[in-house]
Amino acid sequence: MNDNEFEIAIVGGGPAGITAALYAGRSRVRTIVLERGAVGGQLWNTADIDDYPGMSMMTGPEVAQKFEEHARKFGAQFEFGTVTKISKDGDWFVLQTDEGDEYRALSVIVTAGGEARKLGVPGENELAGTGVSYCAVCDGAFFQDRVIAVVGGGDSAVEEGAFLTRYASKVYVIHRRDEFRASPVLVEHLDHTGKAEKVLNTVVEEIVGDAKVTAVKLRNVETGDVSELPVDAVFPFVGFIPHSDIFDDGLVDLDSSGHIETDFKMETKTPGLFAAGDVRSQYVRQITNAVGDATTAALAAAAHVENVKLAQAAA
Q1: 101 classed as catalytic
Q2: Residue 8 CA neighbour count, 13 Å, CB half
Q3: Are 37 and 14 spatial neighbours (Cβ–Cβ below 8 Å)?
Q4: Of the residues 98, 138, 248, 263, which is catalytic?
Q5: Is residue 135 among the annotated active site residues?
Q6: CB 248 within 8 A of CB 85
Q7: Do residues 48 and 163 lie in contact, with contact meaning Cβ atoms separated by under 8 Å?
Q8: pLDDT for 236-280, tens place per residue?
Q9: N or C: at which end does the chain have fewer Cβ atoms within 10 angstroms?
């Protein structure tokens, strides 16, 4: 094979991508992982990991480093690059990056994850980095003894809200419904901090500030009342947009939220093209099921590669 040709290419270096690389390495398959940022993906934006066996109360960055070290032990090759297009050329998949590089692989595992969904309100883009943040671990310490607003009602919002109470004097958790969607244990943890206040049936209409955040303009969805809440920072956790827009037409099917549909082998409608982790259509999105799905995808991809090579040899 040429330098840019691999048996398996993995798009994304989060928990799923690292696990796929580990199992591909153990299978002695020539593999490359293309990651656009730090290896570990969303782990770097996660406060505490308390739901992965054997890693109780470790930080996300600590887990990311352990994952990467383990994968490299089995020969995983990581390269920096943002994959912008995946197409098919005979037995080969062709992967193109935003820097103009091209890679070819007999099988591809997409573990590209996604990114935080924005609120889409005035002031959000203008104040990003000066009080608006999507990463509690990254930016929470900048708001020691300040007042913080967290927007959202799912697991991420409640968990990150509890984490931010380590720094803030007060954390308001703003949710548009009358109760959180987060798991009860996370809500209990938030309550026990003693520094969080729930603001329910409420949406953020605007993030107010000039050079920095000074308040959020709120609207009660039941009464229509509009108010202004003084805060020093806003952390939105209102959803996730999967990175599933990199395929040539017809290679994959997507569900209504843009996640990639697969079968029980994590294989898409295109043989040899697999998906795992947060980018895949599934019921829950946790580290545990991401690494499990990636294990399946890697072993199935290795089998696909072997079948292609046997067919090429027999031709």
Answers
A1: no
A2: 37
A3: no
A4: 138
A5: yes
A6: yes
A7: yes
A8: 999 888 999 999 999 999 999 899 999 999 999 999 999 999 999
A9: C
